[in-house]
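[job 4471] stage=fold_predict status=RUNNING
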Amino acid sequence: LPENSPPGSRFRLERASDADIGANAQLSYTLSPSEDFALDLQRSEEFRESLFLVLTKALDRETVAVHWLLLTASDGGRPSLTGTMELVISVLDANDNAPQFNQSVYKVQLPENAAEGTVVVRVNATDPDKGVNSEVTYRAINVFPPDAKGVISVNSKSGEIRLTRALDFEDVRLYEIELEAKDNGTPPLSGHCSLELEVLDVNDNAPEVGVTIAELTTVPGSRFPLEGASDADTGANAQLSYTLSPSEHFALDLQRSEEFRESLFLVLTKALDRETVAVHRLLLTASDGGRPSLTGTMELVISVLDVNDNAPQFNQSVYKVQLPENAAEGTVVVRVNATDPDMGIYGEVIY
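[job 4471] inference complete, writing structure tokens
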């Protein structure tokens, strides 16, 4: 019997025969106890009998694939004689079960440097039906974000899922993929699950820094805020430390708040002298906490602004000149010269 036979379905059975006559040949039938089947004996006006097996409850092949029943025929004699027949009822499969994944959600973590072709996971769905009704094929039917559809491939037969392109934690940190398992029954039934692919950060980004130009005229202990570096990684891979070279006149001060906000300051440790060094070129290096650590550098070009801290100096402390007494008025006695190492108006001298 097909398992999708509706309750109330009737199946004609062959009646028993009895060689006696009269009451001795008057037959009645009984069926061994069954929740699924009953007997219906119909007699026509011509005393013709029709015996039917009646389905009283929906069948489920996955619960009971074969029903064993005993049909007993009893005559009306005294004493009554009986005959028995075994009914072996095989339940034929119907495609009434959808494939079921062994997990509703598969959660997988992969480092962002995982190679193309890496096996992400092997999903599995089972179908308790038989034959083609239980043959399952797999596919991905939805991927988020939508522009990431080519990130994985699904083997339709085995359920093996492989990586088909490079991952980038800084681009997409989590892929959500809806998977379908469909059987080959008529009509086909399907089951679904989701795959959450989390991309783990790898220290593949060096700190990014630029060029800063500062003009300073100040005293030791002065502090100047600097724009810190940025790192596209996360966690320890983005935890930055800084070094400065050369550092004869300058030092660094890195402050972190309770909210893990960083403030980086350039601290003047020694008085500047523009006339000695007019431009300081420093190299600021940012290193992350990855293994191995990656670094980025920034050049600090510091131009020292002039202050009027130098008096004019004559090129001689005493000028000795001799003139004859008849020297005419207007005669050039001497040209004196003084220089001032300061710049601009600070270096302009009036005599």
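[job 4471] summary: The CA atoms of residues 116 and 274 lie 58 Å apart.
[job 4471] exit 0
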